[in-house]
Amino acid sequence: MKVGILALQGDFEAHAKMLARLGVEPRFVRTVAELTGLAALVLPGGESTTHLKFLREEGLWDPIRQFAESGGALLGTCAGAILLAREVKNPSQESLGLADLTVVRNAYGRQLASEIRFGPTKLRAGPLQMVFIRAPIIERVGPGVEVLAECDGRPVLVRDGRVLAATFHPELTDDPTVHEAFLKLARNGS
Ligand code: GLN
Q: Pick the catalytic residue: 15, 34, 51, 78?
């Protein structure tokens, strides 16, 4: 199975290391041609406004939407989750709209500028370690969206069909749980 990581900006290297640990040699995606043949694509954290600019410049916007429509699995972390959401606030900005979510950027304020927390997850027993860096808040989840992890009573990891969105950075911990779930989703579709 071929897994890509969007490598225009942000912490794509950390995702590559985590996937390599799980036995997957990922392909960095910077052009439309590099999407060919992928079963799954990671949209990493970084700065969503910068991502938007580069996605437009590289002509990747519509091809990524088509990739999702044709059954490709997506994992978006932090800025990546912002790109995937249907609606983005604070301020409002364009997004791919591939997950039925409303997210509020930088919503924790300085209090959660960069912090490690723990929260319950459906993916396994025991709390999940979560690294938040200028994270968005998921303000609304659509009726078809499954909440897979919470922190302080808020959804922080969700699944909408073949799309996984995390407001934290699972690639910055030692715990492969989220990436394992993503690979399973890409392989089996659930
Ligand atoms: N604050 C960034 C944004 O709004 C996201 C931060 C991150 O990905 N760690 O795009």
A: 78
Q: Is the shortest distance between the CB of 46 and ligand 1 below 6 Å?
A: yes
Q: How confident is the model at residue 114 (pLDDT cuts 50, 70, 90)?
A: confident
Give the pairing of strands 154-160 and 163-166: antiparallel
Task: Exactly one of 150, 151, 171, 179 is catalytic; name it.
Answer: 171
Mutate to test the pocket of ligand 1, among 51, 92, 133, 169 (most ligand atoms within 8 A of CB): 133
Pick the CATH number of 3-188 from 3.40.50.880, 3.40.50.720, 3.20.20.140, 3.40.50.2000: 3.40.50.880
133 lines ligand 1 (CB under 6 A): yes
pLDDT tens-digit readout, 117-136: 999 999 999 999 999 999 99
Q: Is the pLDDT of residue 111 over 60?
A: no
Give the closest residue to 15 by CA, choosing from 64, 79, 85: 79
Q: 3-state DSSP call for residue 178?
A: helix
Nearest partner of 68 among 51, 79, 83, judged by Cα: 83
Q: Which of 15, 51, 169, 179 is catalytic?
A: 169
Average pLDDT value over all residues in the chain: 95
83-88 mean pLDDT:
98
Residue 83, ligand 1, Cβ within 6 A: no
